Amino acid sequence: MVADSAVTIIVLVCVAVGLATAAWFAQQVAQIKVVPGHYDEHGSAKQTLLGKSVAEHKTEDDEGHADVFTISKAIAEGANAFLYQEYEFMGIFIVLFGILLLVLLGTCHNWYSGLFSTLAFFCGALTSVLSGFIGMRIAVFTNSRTALSARRGYEYAFDTAFKGGAVMGFALVSLGLIVLFILANAYYLYYTHAFSRDHADGQDQTKNMYEALAGYGLGGSTVALFGRVGGGIYTKAADVGADLAGKVEAGLREDDHRNPAVIADNVGDNVGDIAGMGADLFGSFAESATATMVISAQSPSLYSSWPAMSFPLVLSATGIVVCFFTSFVATHLIKVKRQQDVEPSLKRQLLVSTFLMTPVAFVLAWTFFPDDFIIQRGDELSTRKEVKNYYIFFTVACGLWSGLIIGYITEYYTSHSYVPVREVAKSCETGAATNIIYGLALGYKSVIIPVFCLAITIYVGYSLAGMYGIATAALGILSTLAIGLTIDAYGPICDNAGGIAEMTGMPHDVRDITDALDAAGNTTAAIGKGFAIGSAALVSLALFGAFVTTVNLAQVDILRPFQFAGLLVGAMLPYWFSAMTMKSVGEAALAMVQEVRRQFSLVPTDEHGRKDFARFKPDYAHCVAISTKAAVYKMIPPGMLVMLTPIVAGFFFGVEALAGLLAGALVSGVQMAISASNTGGAWDNAKKYIESGATGSGKGSEQHKAAVIGDTVGDPLKDTSGPSLNILIKLMAIISLVFAPSFPSIHSGGLLSQLFS
Amino acid sequence: MVADSAVTIIVLVCVAVGLATAAWFAQQVAQIKVVPGHYDEHGSAKQTLLGKSVAEHKTEDDEGHADVFTISKAIAEGANAFLYQEYEFMGIFIVLFGILLLVLLGTCHNWYSGLFSTLAFFCGALTSVLSGFIGMRIAVFTNSRTALSARRGYEYAFDTAFKGGAVMGFALVSLGLIVLFILANAYYLYYTHAFSRDHADGQDQTKNMYEALAGYGLGGSTVALFGRVGGGIYTKAADVGADLAGKVEAGLREDDHRNPAVIADNVGDNVGDIAGMGADLFGSFAESATATMVISAQSPSLYSSWPAMSFPLVLSATGIVVCFFTSFVATHLIKVKRQQDVEPSLKRQLLVSTFLMTPVAFVLAWTFFPDDFIIQRGDELSTRKEVKNYYIFFTVACGLWSGLIIGYITEYYTSHSYVPVREVAKSCETGAATNIIYGLALGYKSVIIPVFCLAITIYVGYSLAGMYGIATAALGILSTLAIGLTIDAYGPICDNAGGIAEMTGMPHDVRDITDALDAAGNTTAAIGKGFAIGSAALVSLALFGAFVTTVNLAQVDILRPFQFAGLLVGAMLPYWFSAMTMKSVGEAALAMVQEVRRQFSLVPTDEHGRKDFARFKPDYAHCVAISTKAAVYKMIPPGMLVMLTPIVAGFFFGVEALAGLLAGALVSGVQMAISASNTGGAWDNAKKYIESGATGSGKGSEQHKAAVIGDTVGDPLKDTSGPSLNILIKLMAIISLVFAPSFPSIHSGGLLSQLFS
Questions:
Q1: Using the beta-carbon criterion (under 8 Å), do B463 and A548 form an inter-chain contact?
Q2: What is the per-residue DSSP string for B575-610?
Q3: A668 contacts B668? CB cut-off 8 A
Q4: What gap in Å lies between CA A256 and CA A64, rounded to an integer?
Q5: What is the dihedral sign for C-alpha B74, B80, B85, B90?
Q6: pLDDT tens digits for range B653-705
């Protein structure tokens, strides 16, 4: 066992390393200058990129192109405008929800809990907003620079995109950790000093304190919900609309600068895939850390040991340093030279970080826990487990390695280097219908191994240390989060870089490079989503464990009517939620298509009656406004569904029905989320595989058209409904946990039963 | 309370009514003669159909057409050939599985149980095979006659199709009931007489007897699994293949006689949608009846009362008579005169049968049960319920009316008379991608209300009478099965009639009539599927209840590791299963496309180098063989998954993990099955809506092409993977129930745990 001060030292040092790494990478990215003027002002590189002069690369419609600076500025402005509007709406909601939380907890439980929970909730929400915003800024900053670097070859482009992603990864994890650390310390001080006069039982204080701290996770996930859903609707409405009206109808290329929806599409990558995803994973981190603390506060042997209680903080902190060394492998040891190096390099990051983290987890478990301790839920002796400190290592390692396996399986199903995606690409030969059928089947199939991994992790975690084991497994999967975020952010950065290269009329070789980087990005995005849903499943289960601990439910017997009905209805919620989000994307995309058509109808015609695009100025801002409005308004109903269901269920049907509901949503949501994101990823890469010419037919062929339809269907699946489901299951669980003390008397079966009895 | 002999009298009389009704309708259908020769030999009707002479209707390519007799014969031969092959394979499997059952139960439990269970299993399998076969024969018999009647107008065509469906409905229910009745009586006699020497406790004998009787349900569902999966793969491989190669590539019409896959497509409707569906619903009936008996055999106050024990038989029997009166409404009281009458008439059947059944259920519950009785699982006092006889009425009524609501909701989401399908049709304007997105969202959304209905039914059923209440609710939903089967069979009959009309070159007006009947058929097929999955959910839960009763599990606490891991893995199984079935359809369809392409490449060309289809003889038999082979071989892996998973889980991980697995598969499978069949139904009818010209663009337009893609994707969803999921959840539950006595010692956690402990 180590001293209390060890926690402070480790956390502060690691956060310092994290922030320094982010700053260092940011400074390197910033060395590429983006200034007004045609193309870039990159000195001699301008003439000799890829060994050819720029003149050779100019295409016929080159003249119409804006420069990188202008495009980059337009994207940044669109993203800023959306985030401000989203955050404005969210701000109102967060304040109202905070008041609800305060009043419910205050009147039904006690005002101290209400106050502290609400404070933690606001801190979490604010940190999440900041995370999303910072992530977006970094991405916008890196996109144009990646496009410029792509003119110098794979090595430079990959390096820039990777470092941009790493800036986000390290900055976010460090920020989230330090805020939680400060908050936990402040609460600890306040509860142990101010409260000790009134409360005799130290463990009760500790429990109350950590329950209040769970508000931090709630705040984080609430913002993440709207970020993921709103951002997801935004990005896919723009993407689908741009594809349908521009690519399919008008025959323009992807990211053609004459497509009015193209800026909205690129803005979407930054607000949905970056800001939304950052907030999501920050939420997972905050929830897993607080869930672990709530559960361990119930342990008679852990609650009084600060080092053991703060294990989640220390594990995440050391994870930052592990990720720092891991990132060195990509930036300094084994550099990307060719297209084929990109995917292995990103995969290596996952492998190396997992490898390095394993012994670190062992040392931490060995030193931060007593040799033997007891995990137990309240007075419930049947849940009593005698745990040895190295058991915790096994649970963490289980989570860590499950995450890696899930990542690799996801890669297998979504990368066009393997059979499954190639089969999907081949099925496009017989048209869009077989493409959709094969893609759906692929998504369903890709669920099998991840679910087994999760089931084994849950079994091992629970067997060794009860619900605490599941919570620490969730910590394990998230311990290398900085690298997870890095490779997650890498994808949309490259996607945007490609867009910028196209819009500014950069040479085709440049676009080839960004396309190849982007294809790897699709795979890593799918890996990131697999990772996010895997961690969300474990986090939700840990929160579920913390919830039943808090409400003192000894068991959730699904042979009882409320529980089983809850389970069934819970399993339905992901479908309801997905129906809303998918439909929203569809409707918003239709609005976008109509706007693009309207603008195209204004294109002046030349003397032969043909459309003369050279004299056409697309109105990007209008399309941005359509996406923004659709996203902000359409995120409300699914948001309400997720936020209010557990509260309504808890109040009216009782905690037992709610427990069933949470379990149902969890087990059904996991499957849907994994299959949706893998199906979407596979369709996207099947299209890219066909475009690469590997199947014999390239862009514009019938096979390619079929692939584009699959890609378009996959968009809302992989970037809106799929990833939002992570948050659905997490958020419902943490709302239940935070509101638990205010639910009507436990075991009463809710207000409804009381009325009838 | 009534006398024991009342059961015998009611069952025999009702079965007689059912068989007489079937015979009477069959005789009416048979009055339409199908004999060799061009068109039909329908006397004067030939010249004056629809007030116009046939000559006016002849199309330019009329000469190439075969006559109704020939086409009908080809379909019948194809269907026979497939069913023989399927049953041959199934026969081997059934015998092997029967031996496994005998040996496992014999060695692990006792040989008497093994013997009686296996005998019941064979009876169930045989009855199911017979049901499927009879259904197919009736459908093939009615198809051509419906096509011929369509030449005389809506009234005649509807009447023929409806009566054909009713023949199947009444025949199947009567057959299933009488076999079960005889078997139950035989077992009752044998157990009460032969066994009374060896066994002191009468209730133990009764329990053993009904557990053995559950083998009947197992046999029925095992055959249904292969029927649904094999038939589903067959029908959709042919349908998708015919559509892709014929309609999309070669530009032929639906059911064009020059398409080599067209006979296979029509055969598919009969073997998949008719034979498979008949076996499926027979399985549901057999399982719900036996599950109810197993549960009531545990009741200390019911086991010795033959009238109370045989309530499932009596309820189903009286249901036949109720359905007999209901069918009168369609055939005699309110006849179909115009297109608009078709859907209301079918819906009215559901409503009337539900209305009539309700008082009957009340009288039966009042007379067949003691005023008060006890329902309880083994010695488990916590499950003890004091039940009044009219409680049982409420549970039955809940099931009955839930079924109706589910049917109506399904109609709302899949009929093109309402907003949802019209929205999907409108989304086709922007192409196939939005069509798919909207269709998927529609399917997800359509799950909400059915799941709430099921949850309420489960809650009410359980609250009033424990697991017995859920079993009787399942009986309720299935009590009007004869009408359910009638309107279910109606759809594929009309679909085939349309095919025959097209292939024999009947006038367009005729095809318009069969198309309109078929559109209503798509909706009723979806209603039938909603009904099938709703009943399957309740039946599975009842079986689950019977299983936990048998293994004496007091609770299934999902806070425990094996149970939760089981729940998670169980929820994944429908995905795994769907991946297999969808992919099988895709692969078989590809093989079909290649065969059709090969045949088309042989079409002789005329002097201008154009294909001269008039001189082309399509080789139907080869396409039939491809579908047959694909179906028979590809049904094996998903079949194994369903059959072996519960056995493996039970043996190696114990009954607690198995209980979690069953619950997970149930709650996840229900959602997937409902959404898959409604999505598919909606796409099909959106296409029909566009074809009707209601959206301004008709056949051949871009909008129509987009709709065809949706329809093709929907085919395997609605006719292969969706409906097979019903059987997945039922079959896993009944396998668990039947094998339960042989699983290693209860509460031990399975062989795996014993190894490690």
A1: no
A2: HHHHHHHHHHHHHHHHHHHHHHHHHHHT--B-TTS-
A3: yes
A4: 11
A5: positive
A6: 888 889 999 999 999 999 999 999 899 999 998 998 998 888 888 777 888 88
